[in-house]
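Entry 14. Structure prediction run on the chain below.
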Amino acid sequence: MKGEIGKKFLVSLALMALPVLVRAEANLSLDQVVDKLQANYDQARTYSAAFRQEIVSPSFGQAISSGKGEILYQKPGKMVWRYREPEAHVYLLSGNTLWDYYPDQKRAIHLSLDQALIENVPKSFLFGMGKLRAQFELSFHAGRPAEDDGSIKLDLVPKSEQARSALGTLVFTIAPKTFLVQEVEMTDSLGNLNHLWFDQIKLNASLDPRQFVWNPPKNVKVYGMDNPPGLKEDKSAKPKPAPPPAAPKPTPAPAPVSPAAGGTHP
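Output returned:
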């Protein structure tokens, strides 16, 4: 169950990094909006933003967890989600390697991209080759070309039955003046809502390549089937279950690891 939650979460991360920046225009058709989404995704080389996240459970009818942090993305295939609240937690993806790092627990999980993601939907977007129309059914949310505040909402439903079963549906909220994606909502098959808000968005800014490199400090236990050369999987203890409750819970990212601790951090 924990692995499936991780897969759903990582798929959402890949799609939530989809940047959108186009000139505001009135009365855009669905095809025009999708064309602009695709064109700007194709042209974007880097993306960075601050984010706020809430997980809402239908059983409780309210947010059961929340988090804040920052996201960095660089084509092809480099991404960091660094949570700072409510606790330190980092997802770092570089090429075919995923690190899931819990600094307070002094442990890290190492996976290959194929182990972490469902099918090829997120992978293609991570590597700059994603095609919205090929992989999603797209429509205006509730059939409305615009909301009362002028924003545009798009529904994205995966065409693949397996991805649809795992992901559920996505809703993008696009700001009317900047045409930046300011909110993303992902509702899974159980009704759990993963809601993110983005601000301080920067496109095609220069990013420090060291942000996408991380080596485990000596005091960190590494778990996972595919450890990098020279690292041995720690089998002395089972990893503690991740903080998530019944729904995929955001767990935050760490402050930079001091070189004195024996490692480097994005």
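DSSP finds six helices and twelve strands in the chain.
Filed with the rest of this week's runs.
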